[in-house]
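Page 42, continued from yesterday. The earlier attempt failed because a stray header line got pasted into the input along with the sequence. Redoing it now with the clean sequence only.
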Amino acid sequence: MPRAEVAGIAPGGAVSATRSVDVDVQAPAAGACPETWTVGARLTPVSGEAFGADANLQAVASGTWVASGAQVVLPEAGTYALSADFYSHIAATTPWAVAINARLVNVTAGAPVGTNRRIQFGNINDGGGTVMALQNAGSLSTVLTVTGPTTIRVEGQRQYVGFNDSTQALLGGPRLGFVKVSD
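This time it went through. Structure tokens are written below.
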């Protein structure tokens, strides 16, 4: 009588309730011994998201990266699609020129993921001394391959680039999500 034994672990997989691949075997009719069995597999993506607190970029020196609080753990080896969204806010007395940048960071490896992105730039030349505020929505996305559990977070940075510096600068409402796309 033929039989099937399932053994081994898929590349990047782990034996647990959160496996990333489901294998389906169609059972034969009772008492039957077919020559052909129907076996199928499908990716059951590991996924998650986290929301963080606003990052006050004004409280630190220009050019300093600040963790936003939006941080996730990619639970196992594999390739992941990462997406982050947030808004930036700059306020200052005119004239002023300030930028806000954002990036994803692999905390486990201590290195940026991909490149930094300019989220907002304000160059207000009105010499009237009025207080002006600008807000902008921003996002980051990339694909990342990791060899084991990995912590990723969103960071923001204020860059004072001339004229007067800002009086308020933040990266607000951060969200970071991931979906595993491959082992």
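Notes: DSSP finds no helices and eleven strands in the chain.
Reminder to self: strip header lines before submitting.
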